[in-house]
Amino acid sequence: MDAIVFAYIGIGLMLALTGIGSAYGVSIGGNASIGALKKNSDAFGNYLVLSALPGTQGLYGFGGFFVFSTLFPVLTAEITWLQAGAVFGASIGLGLVGLFSAIRQGQVCANGIAAIGSGHDVFGNTLILAVFPELYAILGFAAAFLIALSVA
User: Fold this and answer.
1) What is the C-alpha to C-alpha distance for residues 64 and 18, in angstroms, rounded to an integer?
2) From the CB of residue 99, how many other CB atoms can be counted at a distance below 10 Å?
3) pTM of whole model > 0.85?
4) Which residues of the chain have pLDDT under 70?
5) What pLDDT is stored for residue 65 in this prediction?
6) Integer Cα distance of 49 and 112 in angstroms
7) CATH topology (fold) of 3-151
């Protein structure tokens, strides 16, 4: 196996894992929204924002690919095994963090959606609490950025 193939396997897993996490996270919020709409259909805008929030982790995966392919272009035929290992490791790290943070963020948002549907004014509080899982996806992206910088 060539080093570039190893690096691209990591990139593919990063994109897949962050995308899967976002798909799960937004569907968790979407499911809660359907139930909450039965109780309070006037708050659909709040449900929509909270349901969409876990979708950002997929964007971090795309951002990681952008970092390795454009900002610090190491994805070339001349890539070394050290660089490929760094790309693979950073990609797996960001992918797993994005996967789990999106799912957990979707669960936080779903609880907020259910509470709003029950008549409680917790939209702002839910947004604040939903930022905490997001922080770890941001840290995963920052780590991938720093790793790309170190091997470029």
Assistant:
1) 10
2) 24
3) yes
4) none
5) 95
6) 11
7) Four Helix Bundle (Hemerythrin (Met), subunit A) (1.20.120)
